[in-house]
Amino acid sequence: MNTKTIVIQEFDSPRLLADIGGTYARFVIEVAKGEFRHSATLRCQDYPDFYAAIRAYLDSLKSVTIAHAAVAIANPVDGDLVSMTNYHWQFSIEEMRQRLGFDTLLIVNDFTALAMALPRLGPNQVHQVGGGEARKQSVIGLLGPGSGLGVSGLIPAGDGWISLGSEGGHTSFAPRNEREIAILRYVWKHFEHVSFERLVSGPGLELIYRALCDTDAVPSNDLQAPEITQRALDQQDRHCQEALDVFCALLGTAAANLAVTLGAMGGIYIGGGIVPRLGEYFARSPFRQRFEEKGRFSRYVTAIPTFVITAEQATFIGASSILDAQLRSLNQDPGSAILSQIRRVRPDLSPAELRVAEHVLAHPRAVVNDPIAEIARAADVSQPTVIRFCRSLGCEGLSDFKLRLASGLTGTVPVTHIQVTNDDSALELGAKVLGNTASSILQVRNQLNRDMIERAIDLINHANKLEFYAIGHYGVVAQDAQFKFLRLGISSTAHTDSRLQLLSASVLKPDDVVVISSSSGRLPELLEVAEKARERGAKVIAIAASHSPLVRKADVALIVDHVEDVTTHLPMVSRILHLLVIDMLAVGVAMRRHPQANGVMPGEVDERLDEARVVPRKAAASNQAPGVSLASPLAKLTSHSR
To answer: Residue of 77, 180, 554, 609 with fewest CB within 10 Å of its CB?
Structure first.
């Protein structure tokens, strides 16, 4: 491995890129855009865990200091804990970042990274197999066999692309002929569920070979996938040749399924560690013929081109692209979502809270590790002020604030908002509205506070009376909430008139609970009823923007930071977010009251309630005792004690 000192050209510091599969861990250093050095491939089995492998690579470089890194891994990435599907490595992203001393550690699915590389590949980095012509700015599909079967896709969005996080390799395998049916029967002896990944992968090629030998009643040799492939290419073994032919045919079926599922008129790309090594054989293999055999949709898929990715560094190109976008996003809006909250509410902070905010914004990583006494000393405030500051942002306390701050600083694929323009077609407008709503939902999900949700559910579950207050466009949120909780058998009322809200709040009792929905959390009428409810001893749950006056007056704050300008248009996304918070509370209360309904969503509860209402009528018609209805689904879902 070459370890000479790196000359930094474009980047402020060299960046580490890694591609981690079930067999090999590949590393490079990117010193300028697209310029990779110090390439190394390590066998995963030689290292006990991911840290040991990456540490061994970094130690070999000696003079290189890394601040930012992106790792593409053959595994779904959802949250902080990464546990590999096809290997035993697992780790916490934030803990790993701290142990390695990086400022940024970005972990993405390997096929998400590979997908993001596709728009950046030149004609000499891919090889077309078969006919068809790609449409510009159309959906692109991606799949590739290796240790597993990776699947992804790209959707055009304005000037960029949205990569799909997919586990499409686990879709159920479907045979196309008698030979494949025989293979399926063989595999069923060993596995209950047979996915495409089970066969269209390195281990899958070995499984196909053994199945063919078993079907022909001949002994199979203990061959690994590379040996089977080489014997097939050298035409040394008939069963190896047939196994590779079947493998390519099944890949053609999987690729065609992906093409029609995504409408991938931009083409289907084949990556992974197997197909690019097959060379000219793959073009002659049954792949393309099987791809085009789609019955009534044969003409449709025949027009879609298929490409083999020949660029060795494609995954690194994609990971680099995602890391670069993340760092640019952090430079434009540095820090996590919670830091964005702090910047937005700075004008409303007290002088003492403002000093805490300025300290957090200036030293976010230090705050993650510093004790409360050190944070208070650095900001020149009391420790209770630090706690009040954290709670005003919807956090349970300092520990919860640090967790949210740390997860935001770890680095993830940024969630974007796409501006609607007058030039958009109806289809583009619809796609942008849906995309922006989805982005906002993901942002709120990242801000969720488990303890606050648990407390809200607990208060509602033990409430003697439940009231929902909202004004104007958010009145539908209160009405929807009343409907949902009435159907759960909870006495609830919705008030959308400020005078009725104040009158109702004036007769509340200590066991009552009020849920107030307000996007801004600043309406004087709602602030007044919140104060009145607290005076009466009732508990107040606020669904509002962080650090708003309403949040300060509430016993429990459920933060939704998506404030829309109601002077220019009707609030759309924020109302959906508030409705989803109500759904979370309804599901939580339903689970608490009816454990036997575990896994039932609100819509399913409604359906079961509707069905259950038939039971008493049937009982009456058959002259059964009224008590029989107590065993009905309605009784199970609605019977409770106060």
So the answer is: 609
Burial class (CB in 10 A: 0-12, 13-18, 19+), 384: exposed
- Of 37, 38, 30, whose CA–CA distance to 11 is shortest? 30
**At residue 196, what is the residue type?**
F
CA distance 195 to 212: 18
pLDDT score, position 421: 56
**SS3 assignment for 530-583:** HHHHHHCCCEEEEEECCCCHHHHHCCEEEECCCCCCCCCCCCCHHHHHHHHHHH
Closest CA to 633 of 585, 587, 592, 600: 600
Q: Side by side, which strands form the sheet with 539-544?
A: 492-495, 466-469, 513-517, 539-544, 556-559
44, two tokens: 């995963």
Q: Please compute, for residue 269, the number of CA atoms within 13 A of its CA located in the half-sphere on the CB side.
A: 28
pLDDT band at residue 337, thresholds of 50, 70 and 90?
low
Q: Is 22 a known ligand-binding residue?
A: yes
State the pLDDT at residue 334: 40
Question: Is 599 annotated for ligand binding?
Answer: no
Confidence at residue 428, expressed as pLDDT on a 0 to 100 scale: 59
Instruction: Give Cα separations from 99 to 52, 62, 104 (angstroms).
Output: 11, 17, 12
pLDDT bracket for residue 619 (50, 70, 90): very low
Burial (0-12, 13-18, 19+ Cβ within 10 Å), 317: buried
* Helix or strand (DSSP H, E) at 619: helix 614-621
Instruction: Count other Cβ atoms within 10 Å, centred on residue 96.
Output: 21
Write down the pTM of the prediction: 0.52
Kindly list the structural domains of the chain, giving each domain's residue range(s) and its CATH number in brackets, ordered by start. 15-109 (3.30.420.40), 123-310 (3.40.367.20), 349-410 (1.10.10.10), 448-593 (3.40.50.10490), 603-638 (no CATH)
Distance CA 50, CA 47 (A): 7
Q: Is 23 annotated as a binding residue?
A: yes
Each residue of 31-42: pLDDT tens digit?
A: 888 889 999 999
Residue 293, Cα to own-chain centre: how many angstroms?
Answer: 34
19 annotated among ligand-binding-site residues? yes
pLDDT band at 427 (very low <50, low <70, confident <90, very high): low
CA gap 493, 98 in Å, rounded:
50
Cβ pair 530, 495 in contact under 8 A: no
CA angle 104, 105, 111 (to 5 degrees): 135
